[in-house]
Amino acid sequence: MTRTRGRHLRVAAVLIGLTLLAAACGSDDKKAAGTASSSGAASAPKGTPGALAGLKGTTPLVDLPADFKAQLDAQGLDLKTVYNYGAESYDIVTIIALAVDLAKTDGIDYAKQINGVTRGGTKCTSFSTCDALIKAGTKDIDYDGASGPLEFSGNGEPTVASYGIQQFVASDKIDDTKTTFKTAKAPASADVPEVPVEGTRAGDGTLKLGTLLPETGSLAFLGPPERAGVRLALKQINDAGGVLGKPVELSEGDSGDTSTDIASKTVDRELGEGVDAIIGAASSGVTLTVIDKIVNAGVVQFSPANTSKKLSSYPDKGLYFRDAPSDILQGQVLGDTIAADGVNNLAIIDRNDAYGTGLAEDLTTAFTGSGGKVIATVTYDQNAQTFDAEVSKLKDAGADGIMIIGFAESARILALMVQKGIGPSSVKVYGCDGNMGNTLGTDFEAGTISK
Length: 451
Fold this sequence. Notes:
alpha/beta, 12 helices, 2 domains, 5-stranded parallel β-sheet, 451 residues, Rossmann fold, 18 strands, 31% helix
């Protein structure tokens, strides 16, 4: 059974109203394909039904087995067939539990075990099998998880990742039968030495986890699968006897996004409850607003969805980890995919934040390395009321391919692109993990998204 300390496990409030646009990109507001609330909705031109057919994009994703999806669906949350980052969240809980097992403490010292749990040593693929190895005296295990082989670098991020290349069809939804998968590896330079853990926080013998995941905001669509992954792993671990001989405890919390102070309030509450790790945020930008507070308390922060390169070298005292890959890898997969589609001249429209500009930079490097040319990069203010000027610049560029790096606002951008004759039926259009989700089509057709 899962126990909660302070506040019991909270079931996320059901957001009333229109479904929010998808997007889970690793940026300042991370991935945004969520559920729109009835308040704070921004109107936009309604998109023509079927106009998204042919839109293609990438997201960190593995070919999840049907039984794993069914287990995520059974965690009491409405996933709406969205499973993005559910496996990553599941693996976070498992990795932390195994690290605590090896360290024999829920204090700060378990952070020293996290990277090693994912690489080198005896292979194992579940908490129960890995835990059995540890109890039998194995001190070096290599957990390959539901999200892939992991293989963390010394800075606590994966050097190998699987991406799904997804495609929208005439229903304005992603056709899973058309999804293909590609494994990407980070350059050798990304495999850096171990970052020392700084701090002396003691444990109390009970592993307590907090979540900082989007129940509201521009990435709310990612909240249900991420929280389901946490709940599923927690159930399996506790069913297997828990950690340090006790059930693992959980306190859930909302991250909101960078337009609110929800994340800071959640972190304050959970630190006050004595959590040993905080899982989240989904948005790299949100993470950057709270990371200092978390690591200065000697607590691990572990994100399932951050992808911004800024976090690869952030001074985190060896306490920040993520099992979503850096956008260096996504940029390469996108560049290869776009070039393979025969695009020669690419225009990019990107959010003005760490995620948007960072991924645009990585994509440009990869695409030009494949022989293509980026003829325009249009950076926009994601809080703007209209994107007419930016979309006009895209049209004027005359590219044969357009890349949209955004979150929920991508629906409004796409509606304008279709109006101006540069939608997916006229030009090859691409998306990223920040906007590739079925709620993108819902918001596109409705002409309304959550701001």
